[in-house]
């Protein structure tokens, strides 16, 4: 029998509370990048060292609203007074070509993707929650950033506690340890998801 097996892409959705190690984990995964990293859109101001198109697509509130009305986002949400969204077209295009996509989103964004109503997207989905070591460690990480006032940090910590209570909504949970261990855990998930029988199509 002459046939070719082709695999559809996996949509890896990664979530963690603010300060939970999500950015560090993404950086570790991208050091050996065999996937497309989806660059989100946001209305927040760039942090020091962040570049437009690499870390985020930085949009005005007006432009973000226009894209929402045009239904260009796979998911979008307002977090800590700023808007974030994932463009739909790039994600779907890559998945159909068999290219894996990694999306870094918050709890609300992950919930929106699960409930998007697109069977192709939901069948492609593998969502992962990174649980930080403790709330106190989370607070210390936010303080070390030095980018926010104490009241803003307190708000993020309160929100983080609420987010951590929703870990069970995810298919996978990584109990965060060291950055290398977190990367290893995520890589194990990626390898397993890529071998699922249902992801393969037998073409004559």
From TrEMBL:
EC number, UniProt record: 2.7.4.8
Residues bound to ATP: 16-23
Gene: gmk
Protein name, entry field: Guanylate kinase
Broadest EC class assigned to this enzyme: transferase
Catalytic reaction equation(s): GMP + ATP = GDP + ADP
Gene3D superfamilies in UniProt: Guanylate Kinase phosphate binding domain, P-loop containing nucleotide triphosphate hydrolases
PANTHER family: GUANYLATE KINASE, GUANYLATE KINASE-RELATED
Classification via Pfam families: Guanylate_kin (PF00625)
